């Protein structure tokens, strides 16, 4: 049964409960990886803004890109490794970054609104913006990048 379920998960043919269970497992792992990405993102943002002296949006863009890359490798190796389609890692990375750029634009837009319009502290604004963008990234990357049926 276990072998059959694992094989069917790779092809997306599991029953309704299996799909919900797999989705929940992936969501949990994705957000655990996301927490590490948040720490990478905010740490790099802080260093670039406070010690290097870059503008907060430039610092944020660089920090987002670096955290996207670390998140890709962790998600590929741990989060989706049990159900993803077989495909080139480079091709997957390009899709992951493409989708994550959408999330980055959402994130930067909210950062700008929160910091420049509501005068929220830039690190708190970045954290809130990450939370807003992460849901979109999870659904799109799970389906498009890693090839897992919805």
Question: Key features?
Answer:
single chain; 150 residues; mainly alpha; 5 helices; disordered N terminus
Task: Describe, in plain words, how this protein is organized in 3D.
The chain has 150 residues and is an all-alpha fold. It has one domain (2-145). The chain is built from 5 helices and no strands. The chain has helices spanning 2-11, 16-52, 56-79, 89-117, 122-145. The two termini are 22 Å apart.
The main β sheet shows up as: none
Helix content: over 70%
Count of discrete alpha- or pi-helical segments spanning 4 or more residues: 5
Into how many domains do the coordinates divide? 1
Order of helices and strands: HHHHH
Structural class: mainly alpha
Distance between the termini: 22 Å
Number of strands: 0
Nearest-angstrom radius of gyration? 17 Å
Envelope shape: elongated
Mean pLDDT: 87
Strand content: under 5%
Point out poorly predicted stretches. Answer: 1-12
Task: Indicate the topology.
Blueprint: H1 2-11, H2 16-52, H3 56-79, H4 89-117, H5 122-145
């Amino acid at each position: 049964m276990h072998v059959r379920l694992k094989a069917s998960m790779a092809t997306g043919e599991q029953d309704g409960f299996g799909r919900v269970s797999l989705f929940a497992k992936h969501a949990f792992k994705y957000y655990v990886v996301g927490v590490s990405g948040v720490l990478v993102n905010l740490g790099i943002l802080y260093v670039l803004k406070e010690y290097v002296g870059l503008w907060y949006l430039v610092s944020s863009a660089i920090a987002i890109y670096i955290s996207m890359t670390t998140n890709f490798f962790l998600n590929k190796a741990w989060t989706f490794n049990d159900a993803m389609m077989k495909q080139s890692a480079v091709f997957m990375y390009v899709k992951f970054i493409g989708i994550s750029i959408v999330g980055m634009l959402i994130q930067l837009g909210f950062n700008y609104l929160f910091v420049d319009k509501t005068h929220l502290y830039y690190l708190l604004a970045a954290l809130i913006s990450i939370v807003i963008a992460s849901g979109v990234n999870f659904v799109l990357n799970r389906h498009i990048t890693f090839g897992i049926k919805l």
